[in-house]
């Protein structure tokens, strides 16, 4: 019976979702490197990802990312898959050299090292906000309304920014803009300029979480 139980447990573990495996690895890993974050001088990109730093220690764990997605209103399956893929991609790039293996946590002070190509340029290479590039989004693509984007305009924006020499970077903007549109577009299908601006510094995320929390409390 014991042998059979062990085999069943091993087989079950192989069927666990990737994010569950990541969470277990993180839980049983030995410690982590310390993080330093200059909160007063955070870049917009650091503010953007800090929404997922639920305990505000400068380090984002897979469980925190999962919790953040759920807080935004994403379903559990999507949140698990997203947390798994985000940490697999950004953990090794943002972890300091003294971080223990596996390097799956995301260190906010190094988040600029995880930036991908084929984006709008509204963040510079250090993660700072570039107002001119942000305005170009609407100058070039906002045809129906000057202060908002339709779903077709979002698609046009994504395609126009694709780097033909870097096809591996094409997937990131599709996921990011797709989720932004799903979460923040209005009932008429417009993703407003102020909402997009709020996504760049996470203030829109805070509003979405508060709105979701408020709606649940009223049920």
From TrEMBL:
EF-hand domain: residues covered: 40-75
GO MF terms held by the record: calcium ion binding; monooxygenase activity
A Pfam family matched in the record: Caleosin
PROSITE patterns for the chain: EF_HAND_2 (PS50222)
Record-linked InterPro entries: Caleosin-related (IPR007736), EF_hand_dom (IPR002048)
Stated family: Belongs to the caleosin family.
Protein name: EF-hand domain-containing protein
Organism phylogeny: Eukaryota, Viridiplantae, Streptophyta, Embryophyta, Tracheophyta
């Amino acid at each position: 019976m014991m042998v059979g139980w062990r085999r069943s447990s091993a087989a079950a573990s192989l069927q666990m979702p990737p994010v569950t495996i990541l969470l277990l690895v993180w839980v049983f890993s030995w410690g982590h490197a310390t993080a330093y974050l200059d909160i007063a001088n955070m870049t917009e990109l650091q503010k953007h990802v800090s929404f997922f730093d639920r305990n505000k220690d400068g380090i984002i764990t897979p469980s925190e990312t999962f919790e953040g997605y759920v807080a935004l209103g994403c379903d559990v399956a999507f949140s698990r898959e997203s947390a798994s893929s985000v940490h697999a991609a950004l953990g090794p790039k943002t972890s300091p050299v003294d971080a223990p293996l596996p390097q799956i946590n995301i260190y906010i002070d190094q988040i600029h090292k995880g930036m991908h190509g084929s984006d709008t340029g509204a963040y510079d290479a250090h993660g700072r906000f570039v107002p001119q590039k942000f305005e170009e989004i609407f100058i070039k693509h906002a045809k129906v309304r000057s202060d908002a984007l339709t779903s077709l305009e979002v698609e046009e924006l994504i395609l126009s920014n694709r780097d033909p020499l870097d096809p591996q970077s094409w997937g990131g903007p599709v996921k990011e803009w797709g989720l932004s549109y799903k979460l923040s577009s209005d009932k008429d299908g417009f993703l407003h300029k102020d909402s997009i601006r709020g996504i760049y510094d996470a203030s829109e995320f805070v509003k979405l979480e508060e709105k979701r929390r408020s709606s649940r409390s009223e049920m």
